[in-house]
């Protein structure tokens, strides 16, 4: 007997989603319940649902518990990070901001609202709890008021996670961290190369800003490294009144691949994603995604340092992300520029959470996660990839 409603279009996404859910196991959920009952004690006698424990120990209730990302286990011993498919890494750094600060609270804000999410996505038919292992390694020890020392800490920490084989997901932090994160990846690429797909309203390509390597500067320094060629830097959504001219000059000189929001809308989302994929993967071995939350229209993401009207709609950005993640070899992602002190109702942090969860789901759908073996682009031995800077 068919369970399909006569009012449902027969080949709708919704209909397929209903079917996909049937295939998902409940093993991870059962383990979580068992652990909750063991560690958190069985519930009071008046509670009819005997999967509930006395102390909240898992997903439920969503408003309770200790806020790691999606309540993933907090991995205190980072030496063990290679035992997980995915590692969440907080980078609470805002010394690279040139206007509104506050992104040092980005990791906390994203973790807090991530408690709202279940591990299951309807349309994609993915249940992260059942399909991958996720940990939260906490935050990098950044040094306030010193970008360069913070960059060294970030590169060392992210390189450790990257080399372990766990897929790194970075919670920023301002966009200055784009340089040390990519440097971390490059340290363990040997002679392999990485393409960068950069979602942003801002070019972020100038050498210095206010005499330092600020959040307007990551791609100048990242694309100085031989493992991260400028010809494989794709910049999606750039435009408006906040793009410094020195950065534009560098984009021109290095021939980075830029699409404005109008370009993306006129060519269509599929063609725009294809353009990004083609340019970022041409001669490279993997792709780093740098997602500045301000690529989305300022009306949806008020909690950011340099909000700019006229950006992508959330569903446009999420569609581009879907197509790109599912069709490239992604080696890591950072979501930057979430500034909770300027946020309203956690909506900017929620958008960041959505980008991260969608990325994990697309990696599952495309077979990149769980990792059965360490990706071949990871080179065990660390190499020097950039010049001292002062
Ligand atoms: Mn930006």
At the fold tier of CATH, the topology name of the largest domain is: Arginase, Chain A
What is the top-level CATH class of the largest domain?
Alpha Beta
Treating each run of at least 4 consecutive H or I residues as one helix, how many helices? 12
Fraction of residues in β-strands? 5-15%
Using only CA atoms, what is the Rg?
Answer: 21 Å
The percent of residues in helical segments reads 25-40%
Globular, elongated, flat, extended or rod-shaped: what is the shape?
globular
**Helix and strand pattern:** HHEHEEHEHEHEHEHEHHEHEH
The helix-and-strand class reads alpha/beta
The side-by-side strand order for the widest beta sheet comes to 4-1-5-10-9-6-7-8
Q: Any guess at the CATH architecture of the largest domain? A: 3-Layer(aba) Sandwich
In CATH, the homologous superfamily of the largest domain goes by the name Ureohydrolase domain
Q: What is the arithmetic mean of pLDDT? A: 97
